[in-house]
Write a structure and sequence with these properties.
43% of the residues are buried. With 486 residues, the chain is α+β, with helices and mostly antiparallel strands. A hairpin with a 2-residue loop joins β4 and β5. Helices cover 35% and strands 23% of the residues. The protein has 15 helices and 15 strands.
Length: 486
């Protein structure tokens, strides 16, 4: 920007109750150039839609805008090892939905992406300084269909009364019982409703998580009858159980958990190897994130001994991977590891309150939830030891050496060496060919994942090379979908 233009920009900023459009364009272009390369994404048009105080920091202002970005060079926003559509959405400040034009297999020079975004600013002297992308609203499950106000309402009221009547010293134990029973009841209700709707039930993951968002995106695309009904679960281990008993027809699981089930190992030891599991599609890589509070004297994973560490839900694939990573670094409950099993959302709440020292989770990069955490407080990401990475890759063919790119999260200036494990879409060999084709048509051709709220869904490879290999054989009906035209 020329000096005269920059001076004019600063003068205008000093007179404005919020940053003027010219500064917004300048700041957004700088951020895009830093992460994606100079002029690869060019701000073509930007319409300022207003501003308001930042709810997370009232002294700051959030500026809302509509932007069109022209690609100056080809770019694949679904690439696994570079900044991708999830990072682009973070830079722009998109909510769970609001980014359009990302093409499966890569965008061409001259393509235009459109988005609704927001950026937070604070006063700096007489002008304004960009702070960060404000916290995006969390994805919420869609509202259910109204129910008759007779028996259902009466039972719900009775249940609420019984829960609120609990009191006394046994409250923590009773809370756990109520949580377990209500969770089980909710899952049974959703499963039965899915069958009633005559859709193909898909076991995804925790509500608001990456697996769940993929399931929601697929369930949103509907024809004359529902093609997929998304079922929230606690994770990969639970999903394979639902697949095994026929409750669901399709499931999203981590590759290492799937391999353990196929071999009858790990958490599945004592069971017969399952030879009926089939791969429908490889989705995206999930990287092991080791997150610690900045300021703690923790610089290696071995330093987590005697620290409170969250390691994922009991029935999740993330927890199985994390436990193995910690064991390979010499950390177990027997030698001082204080690991606590919990969902990521719960872990983030405790971490923000200072009641956890670290979170270790296996998730896509960048994770929207972890990005929110990095904006609200200073964190550090620890690398895995190179020897552990190589040993785990040697012993388990599903693991990938991976690097979390620099600037994936606020304050992360260096790339972080870690492991990744692919998320997979699986079924049993008894699933009909018609059902497989219906699901894969949604996956490859109908669902615009970036626009429907699943940033990681935009990573799904559509070519035969990207879908090659897996811990179990590919379903015979899935092969034509991969080898056919995108």
């Amino acid at each position: 920007m020329k000096p005269v233009c920059l001076l004019l920009l600063l003068l205008l900023a000093g007179c404005s109750p919020s940053p003027p459009p010219a500064q917004l364009v300048h700041d957004l272009q700088q951020r895009l150039d830093r992460d994606f390369g100079e002029r690869r994404l060019v701000v073509e048009t930007l319409d300022r839609l207003g501003s308001a105080p930042d709810r997370m920091a009232p002294a700051q202002r959030v500026v809302y805008f509509r932007v069109a970005l022209r690609l100056g060079q080809p770019y694949d926003f679904g690439a696994w090892r570079t900044h991708n559509v999830a990072r682009l959405a973070e830079l722009i400040g998109c909510g769970p939905r609001g980014l359009y034009g990302v093409r499966a297999g890569g965008n061409w020079a001259g393509d235009t992406l459109r988005a609704f975004g927001r950026v937070s600013y604070r006063r700096a002297g007489k002008g304004w300084q960009v702070v960060a992308t404000p916290v995006a609203e969390r994805a919420m499950p869609p509202a259910g269909r109204p129910v008759p106000p007779d028996t259902v309402e009466r039972l719900t009221h009775a249940l609420s009364t019984a829960v609120h009547a609990l009191s006394g010293p046994a409250r923590p134990a009773s809370d756990r019982i109520v949580e377990e029973e209500l969770g089980s009841a909710l899952q049974n209700i959703e499963n039965r409703l899915a069958r009633l709707q005559q859709g193909l039930a898909l076991a995804s993951g925790e509500r608001g998580g990456e697996y769940w968002r993929i399931g929601e995106a697929m369930a949103t695309v509907r024809g004359s009858a529902p093609a997929v009904v998304n079922i929230a679960t606690s994770g990969s281990v639970a999903n394979l159980g639902l697949l095994d008993d026929g409750t669901v027809g399709v499931a999203i699981v981590q590759a290492d958990v799937l391999l353990a089930a196929a071999r009858g190992e790990g958490v599945f030891s004592g069971r017969r190897p399952d030879g009926g599991l089939r791969l429908l599609a490889r989705l995206y890589p999930e990287a092991v994130h080791v997150i610690v509070r900045d300021g703690l004297p923790v610089y290696r994973i071995a330093d987590l001994r005697q620290r409170r560490v969250a390691i994922g839900s009991t029935d999740s694939g993330a927890r199985q991977t994390v436990v193995e990573v910690l064991r390979r670094h010499g950390l177990t409950a027997a030698n001082g590891l204080k690991a606590e099993s919990m969902a990521l959302r719960d872990a983030l709440t405790l971490f923000a309150a200072g009641r956890l020292d670290a979170i270790i989770h296996t998730i896509g990069v960048p994770s929207a939830d972890l990005a929110v955490l990095a904006r609200s407080q200073r964190i550090r990401l620890l690398p895995l030891d190179n020897a552990v990475i190589e040993a785990m890759r040697r012993d388990n063919p599903v693991y990938l050496a991976f690097s979390i790119p620099a600037d994936s999260y606020d304050g992360q200036r260096q790339a972080v060496a870690t492991l990744a494990v692919p998320a997979l879409l699986v079924a049993r060999d008894t699933l009909s060919g018609d059902a497989v084709q219906r699901v894969l048509d949604l996956l490859y051709r109908q669902a615009d994942f970036a626009a429907l709220g699943s940033r990681q869904g935009a990573w799904i490879p559509r070519d035969a090379a990207g879908q090659a290999g897996g811990p179990v054989p590919m379903h015979v009906a899935a092969v034509p979908a991969v080898e056919g035209p995108p």
